[in-house]
Amino acid sequence: MKTLAAVARDAGAPLVIEELDLDELRPTEVRVRMVATGVCHTDAVVRDQIYPTPLPAVLGHEGAGIVEAVGGAVRSVAPGDHVVLSVNTCGRCRHCLEGASTYCESLYALNFGGTRIDGSTALTDAGGSAVSSHFFGQSSFATYANADERAVVKVPDDVPLELMGPLGCGIQTGAGAVMNSLRPAAGTTFAVFGAGAVGLSALLAAVAVGCGRIIAVDVNPDRLALARELGATDTVDAREGDVAARVKELTGDGVDFALETSGRSDVLRQAVDSLGVRGTVGVVGAQAPGTETAVETGLSMTRGWSLKMIIEGDSIPQVFIPRLIELWRQGRFPFDRLVENFDFHDINDAFSASENGEVVKPVVVFA
């Protein structure tokens, strides 16, 4: 069948809307008609070939839509179900079986490889050439996608799919880093470095679990103002003075928990230096492979701080996304404050709005 897709053909270039051929479903796949899909920093990272998914490719990994057909082995959803698409995993390796599926042994191949695990692609262009598919098991920058069942999460029919897509990655990553990974106790102190979609989702989670002092660090005054509206007790403009000294001034000794979301080594060092004794810093900001960050390791031993690398908020999407939806229904996780919709044909404007800081979380909506 035909699908209209936004294709990344050249590194760093705008996406091109094209009609592609979508192949037949495999037994473990689900055909989804997309209603909307979020635009994430990871899409830009791959478009720019910092992560080398083969081009041309259809990206998109925060899809939301309606199931149209299922493969013969699919049991978790049926035609007509409303779904959110998330990270893909094998379900068979030791880490998947231990409930840590975001550290799947096949994570990179399944999500960034550009093909199914057997090497086939679901997409072909008008000239008969292969186009990389199955980005995060979905490639949701298209009107239709053949998604791996492991990447599909059933959601209630009465929630707006135009809003739900970012739960599949960005929102899940920030909220899960707090709720699943760091697990701060009520009344503890927390600082988030970067007030983008992931950082502000983490802030919302810190509010939801009852952190006492919640500090947002960024260079964008509008983002800091939004952070205060969403529940930050304090904000720090990183352009003004020593960030770590300011955080310690606010907290006495430093924070119990910090989360780095910007993907910058200098910011990670600031987060480390902002920790109190036995504090923990989590890292979700994606940096280029091979990047290194220098940290102090002499007196640090006496402070007992910990560093934790986090993928997708340590979430099991089929469990965690419905929990976030319930918190949103209760008014305790207002992630809708972060979302702004764009028409699918304006997808490059959505990327630009995200990159220049105009919009926290762009979501493209299909006709």
Structure overview:
The structure is a single chain. The chain has 367 residues and is an alpha/beta fold. The chain is built from twelve helices and 18 strands. It has helices at residues 41-47, 94-97, 107-112, 161-164, 170-182, 197-209, 221-230, 243-251, 265-273, 300-303, 317-329, 347-355, and strands spanning 2-8, 16-22, 29-38, 57-58, 63-70, 82-85, 123-124, 130-131, 144-148, 152-155, 189-193, 213-218, 234-237, 255-260, 275-283, 306-309, 339-343, 361-365. The strands form three sheets. Strands 3, 5, 6, 9, 10, 17 and 18 form a seven-stranded mixed sheet that branches. A six-stranded parallel sheet has the order 13-12-11-14-15-16, with helices on both faces. Strand 11 (189-193), helix 6 (197-209) and strand 12 (213-218) form a beta-alpha-beta unit. Helix 5 (170-182) packs across helix 6 (197-209). The longest helix has 13 residues, at 170-182.
